[in-house]
UniProtKB/TrEMBL annotation:
Extent of the signal sequence: none
Entry keyword set: Calcium, Calcium channel, Calcium transport, Disulfide bond, Glycoprotein, Ion channel, Ion transport, Membrane, Metal-binding, Signal, Transmembrane, Transmembrane helix, Transport, Voltage-gated channel
Organism: Sapajus apella
Location of the VWFA domain: 287-465
Record family assignment: Belongs to the calcium channel subunit alpha-2/delta family.
Protein name: Voltage-dependent calcium channel subunit alpha-2/delta-2 isoform X4
GO cellular component: voltage-gated calcium channel complex
Membrane topology: Single-pass type I membrane protein
């Protein structure tokens, strides 16, 4: 007999019950299920005790009843798809038209070797152009005669920034009146460059903080002018060449063809010497330890200068380099959580930059502690590192100790570690010890007295590192190819071939060879040009080509889609982050980095195109190295893409017949046709509007034939063939069927050839899928899954329930058409139907009810007993269909119709959690390193103005303080704060001219759900205190659906934790303090009820943990860090006398009177930089 109705807080007889299956009914529960004495009862004795709340006549349906409902649902879906989907009929149509196409085979090894060879040939042409340029530059410079008295009016060149500076009334050149003879050029639009160009001239870009009229710069402009003819000759030999660039060690950039500089809205901080391609070409890889003096004497502006200098120094490092940063006073400690050298990639450098801002000055100076820490770091051989140039960069305000004993212990006599010292700030300390340290250890001494000196003096150490390379001569003249990065002139994503240019001059007969690097020559290759060499459409929707470099970063990959790019940083997406990582892919990645060939079939997880679903699939990976480069190429093919169709429409009459079905006049009877926006012909105008694109296509086809040389015959023939084949499907199946009988809004077919046909024509008005089948999520998922794939509409596009009467909201159901021709199997098309949401929700109730036929719902009499069903008892019983991603598809609750398409946890968190805990669903977490996030507003750190050192009352009363460096620092802070407002806090991207509201790159944590291991029917009780819920779940055969029946919750206690299926913004934490003793072990995670994702720490997965298990990589195979003939006598000079107090005060008064300080013209240019 039934138990009386429950109320909130009322308990059932016996102990509390938990989520656990009935004994002997299916697999054991997943995590979170607990034992219950209730479940010791046989199910047949227990079920009659479970009554519906609010009625004594109904009980929860038994398992065999719900299995019966599930079978009815399966049969209904299968019946509709068999009648309207037309899978079998389409197979027959393909076989009937067997004479119109051939079946071609994708042979992975031959394919990947051919593409690798084509890429090699493309890059080799650029290499030859590079070598011609580098040789010419060295000869031009060697023949050039230095002119001490050269003037600006003697040089005629096109200044790429001239137009922008003339438009800026505050520009330095406008105020001063530039004397340079600047050319005025005319430009033409060139689609290859995505820019206006002039092929008759080169353009020159000079950094903002370098004085254009200096003797060094004018001589540089003089001799590099001769490169213009070589640039033009290169283009004559290879018209596909893009930007050809010479980046000079003096900061001058000369590039061809000429185009105006893309002037930012704010400060232009572009300096070629900080570009990824220049850094890679100018020196061998580096192991660098930066140590920063944070003793008490380092205060105010000096400390800020140091922090900024360290950040600028980090920007001179590339992914081939390794670095660590430490602060020191009496003791040395790392500024971040990194305890050893780590790769200088974008994310690690970001951690350093954040941590450096937390440095605080206190204590006394202890050079010994700092250098011992640095040498210990460099001697650690148990970690991955560059194993080439080793160096220590020390930033300090000065000191007396030379720490000779440390150098004797760690570095002498071989001097394998270079020491660079930086005297920072305005002070009266003797800098001789700093000079001695640098000179005694093959390094260089620099001074950074003010803001303007930072950028130049933190990058000129590259000249010193370039000495062994220059002295090595031809051996070092090797072309290197860079990571992917954003071109500064708007070309998009590019890679650059680089070649160093050496100074071949000698100071006199018998003198030593010059050891200065002149600069780096570079030639860009757009990623789109490389992509054009890969097969586009023969690999199918889920096949693709990818390429990686020695760091494991992708050069090509369909998932390489950075939403925002910063041209100051390379685009570094690891292969294991571009895909869902597993052990097989780690093995493939390692083999590719090692330059091996290979093939492997793996079972892996893939993310759907809309990133809502996860599918377990089989993929074949084949890979080969690209010779003469540091890249490796891979090909990924699903087994069903081994073969593909190639149309053979030699009958022109048939071509015309099929083509007519593309005309809009045929749509009313044959259904609407969307064509994939592919590059069918060179003269075809592209459009984002498919109707307009089809119009352009038809107009072009009236002028040319499908066999025209200007068209892609493969694409055109396949498109026209699929037009005819899908029209025959309309003729044989769709046209004579009444869609309304089965509550269908539309039927459709999509093909590899690029056709999507939607019937009837009016249904196209509400068709929102991508017209390119290869970019449509339903298409790609149908190919990867057997059976029927349901796709509910995205929640954002849903209407409210009352508006569903318009019959415009539908649920897609699709399945792949598998075609077997002999022993060859392929899937050339996907067919499906679009269900009317409202009508099928009503039908769902009936199918999951006790009706035996189309009569009135069964009702229980006063004395009878029967089971609840989803129709009569919808007030007490929740019945839903959920897809394999956890999204609601159908519900028996009318008020949930507007929630179809939502993640089910948002509809019923308690029930979704139980399904997850009982292994119906598995969760996959990953990180999107290409996301874009809105800028975070800066927080207020206090009432004082930003960046100002505030002295105490005791300081003001202390006479000594007024004569100290601290007082001088305070003066500088106040003055610079007035003149250069927020200079130190300015974001680099902002300074480059980005709008303040521009989105910036960030890391997003993604969570997707997919079906777990449970396939059988399953019953369980959800224990939520005194308000337990019984539920039943069962997978529907041959679909991606889960059928769930559950008691409706009555008590708020059941609303436990909520699972989320969405992207979560990763927020950077405050700067990490120096490492402390190991923390206590973390408490284990609780049940999934508490699993609400938190902001992911440290820019994605915990960066401090990741560096402990670095991914495999290889650096360049040749290192130039030593040459016995190197002259180390040029190691920097500086003044050791204190500044005059009167002069300083006078300068400050002049500044206060409103005379703006000029940018410093090339701070500390080497005397040997005479060209």
């Amino acid at each position: 007999m039934a138990v009386p109705a429950r109320t909130c807080g009322a308990s059932r007889p016996g102990p509390a019950r938990t989520a656990r299956p009935w004994p002997g009914r299916g697999p054991q529960p997943g995590p979170g299920a607990r034992r219950s004495l209730w479940l010791l009862l046989p199910p047949l004795l227990l079920l009659p005790l479970l009554a519906a709340p609010g009625s004594s006549a109904y009980s929860f349906p038994q398992q065999h009843t719900m299995q019966h409902w599930a079978r009815r649902l399966e049969q209904e879906v299968d019946g509709v798809m068999r009648i309207f989907g037309g899978v079998q009929q389409l197979r027959e149509i393909y076989k009937d038209n067997r004479n119109l196409f051939e079946v071609q085979e994708n042979e992975p090894q031959k394919l990947v070797e051919k593409v690798a060879g084509d890429i090699e040939s493309l890059l080799d042409r650029k290499v030859q152009a590079l070598k011609r340029l580098a040789d010419a530059a060295e000869n031009f410079q060697k023949a050039h005669r230095w002119q001490d008295n050269i003037k600006e009016e003697d040089i005629l060149y096109y200044d790429a920034k001239a137009d922008a500076e003339l438009d800026d009334p505050e520009s330095e050149d406008v105020e001063r009146g530039s004397k340079a003879s600047t050319l005025r050029l005319d430009f033409i639009e060139d689609p290859n460059f995505k820019n206006k160009v002039n092929y008759s001239y080169t353009a020159v870009q000079i950094p903002t903080d370098i004085y254009k009229g200096s003797t060094v710069i004018l001589n540089e402009l003089n001799w590099t002018e001769a490169l213009e003819n070589v640039f033009m000759e290169n283009r004559r030999q290879d018209p596909t060449l893009l930007w050809q660039v010479f980046g000079s060690a003096t900061g001058v950039t000369r590039y061809y063809p000429a185009t105006p500089w893309r002037a930012p809205k704010k400060i232009d901080l572009y300096d070629v010497r900080r570009r990824p391609w220049y850094i890679q070409g100018a020196s061998s890889p580096k192991d660098m330890v930066i140590i920063v003096d944070v003793s008490g004497s380092v205060s105010g502006l000096t400390l800020k200068l140091m922090k900024t200098s360290v950040c600028e120094m980090l920007d001179t490092l590339s992914d081939d380099d390794y670095v660590n940063v430490a602060s020191f006073n009496e003791k040395a400690q790392p500024v971040s959580c990194f305890t050893h050298l780590v790769q200088a990639n974008v994310r690690n450098k970001k951690v350093f930059k954040e941590a450096v801002q937390g440095m605080v000055a206190k204590g006394t100076t202890g050079y010994k502690a700092g250098f011992e820490y640095a040498f210990d770091q460099l001697q650690n051989s148990n970690i991955t590192r560059a194993n080439c140039n080793k160096m220590i960069m020390m930033f300090t305000d000065g000191g007396e100790d030379r720490v000779q004993d440390v150098f004797e212990k760690y570095n002498w006599p071989n001097r394998t570690v270079r020491v660079f010292t930086f005297s920072v700030g305005q002070h009266n300390y003797d800098v001789t010890p700093l000079q001695w340290m640098a000179c005694a250890n093959k390094g260089y001494y620099f001074e950074i007295p003010s803001i303007g000196a930072i950028r130049i003096n933190t990058q000129e150490y590259l000249d010193v590192l370039g000495r062994p390379m220059v002295l090595a001569g031809k051996e070092a003249k090797q072309v290197q190819w860079t990571n992917v990065y954003e071109d500064a002139l708007g070309l998009g994503l590019v890679v650059t071939g680089t070649l160093p240019v050496f100074n071949l001059t000698q100071d006199g007969p018998g003198e030593k060879k010059n050891q200065l690097i002149l600069g780096v020559m570079g030639i860009d290759v757009a990623l789109n040009d490389i992509k054009r060499l890969t097969p586009n459409y023969t690999l199918g929707a889920n096949g693709y080509v990818f390429a990686i470099d020695l760091n494991g970063y992708v050069l090509l990959h369909p998932n390489l889609k950075p939403q925002t790019t910063n041209f100051r940083e390379p685009v570094t997406l690891d292969f294991l982050d571009a895909e869902l990582e597993d052990e097989n892919k780690e093995e493939i990645r390692r083999s590719m980095i090692d330059g091996n060939k290979g093939h492997k079939q793996i079972r892996t997880l893939v993310k759907s195109l809309d990133e809502r679903y996860i599918d377990e699939v089989i993929r074949n990976y084949t890979w080969v190295p690209i010779r003469s480069t540091n890249y490796s190429l891979g090909l990924v093919l699903p087994p069903y893409s081994t073969f593909y169709l190639q149309a053979n429409l030699s009958d022109q009459i048939l071509q015309v017949k099929y083509f007519e079905f593309l005309l809009p006049s045929s749509f009313e009877s044959e259904g609407h046709v969307f064509i994939a926006p592919r590059e069918y012909c060179k003269d075809l105008n592209a459009s984002d509007n498919n109707t307009e694109f089809l119009k352009n296509f038809i107009e072009l086809m009236e002028k040319v034939t499908p066999d025209s040389k200007q068209c892609n015959n493969f694409l055109l023939h396949n498109l026209i063939l699929d037009t005819g084949i899908t029209q025959q499907l309309v003729e044989r199946v769709w046209r004579d069927q009444d869609l309304n009988t089965y509550s269908l809004l539309a039927v459709f077919a999509a093909t590899d050839g690029g056709i999507t046909r939607v019937f009837p024509n009016k249904a196209a008005e509400d068709w929102t899928e991508n017209p390119e089948p290869f970019n449509a999520s339903f298409y790609r998922r149908s190919l990867d899954n057997h059976g029927y794939v349901f796709k509910p509409p995205h929640q954002d596009t849903l209407l409210r329930p009352l508006e569903l009467e318009n019959d415009t909201v539908g649920i897609l159901v699709s399945t792949a058409v598998e075609l077997s021709l002999g022993r060859r199997t392929l899937r050339p098309a996907v067919v499906g139907v679009k269900l009317d949401l409202e009508a099928w929700a009503e039908k769902f109730k009936v199918l999951a009810s006790n009706r035996t036929h189309q009569d009135q719902p069964q009702k229980c009499g006063p004395s009878s007993h029967c089971e609840m069903d989803c129709e009569v008892n919808n007030e007490d019983l929740l019945c839903v269909l959920i897809d394999d991603g956890g999204f609601l598809v159908l519900s028996n609750q009318n008020h949930q119709w507007d929630q179809v398409g939502r993640f089910f946890s948002e509809v019923d968190a308690n029930l979704m959690l139980a399904l997850y805990n009982n292994s119906f669903y598995t969760r996959k977490e990953s990180y999107d390193y290409q996301a874009a996030c809105a800028p975070q507003p800066p927080g207020n750190l206090g009432a004082a103005p930003r960046g100002v050192f505030v002295p105490t009352i005791a300081d003001f009363l202390n006479l000594a303080w007024w004569t100290s460096a601290a007082a001088w620092s305070l003066f500088q802070q106040l003055l610079y704060g007035l003149i250069y407002h927020s200079w130190f806090q300015a974001d680099a991207a902002e300074a480059e001219g980005s709008p303040e509201t521009r989105e910036s790159s960030c890391v997003m944590k993604q969570t997707q759900y997919y079906f777990g291991s449970v396939n059988a029917s399953y019953n369980a009780i959800i224990d939520c205190g005194n308000c337990s819920r019984l539920f039943h779940a069962q997978r529907l055969t041959n679909t991606n659906l889960l059928f769930v029946v559950a008691e409706k919750p009555l008590c708020s206690q059941c609303e436990a934790g909520r699972l989320l299926q969405k992207e979560t913004h990763c927020i950077l934490p405050p700067p990490s303090p120096p490492p402390a003793p190991p923390p206590a072990p973390r408490a284990p995670l609780l049940a999934a009820a508490s699993l609400t994702p938190h902001p992911c720490p440290a820019d994605g997965p915990e960066q401090c943990e990741l560096v402990q298990r670095p991914r495999y990589r290889r650096g360049p195979h040749i290192c130039f860090d030593y040459n016995a003939t190197e002259d180390t006598s040029d190691c920097g000079r500086g003044a050791s006398f204190p500044p005059s107090l009167g002069v300083l005060v006078s300068l400050q008064l002049l500044l206060l009177l409103g005379l703006p300080p000029r940018p410093q013209p090339q701070v500390q240019v080497h005397a040997s930089r005479r060209l």
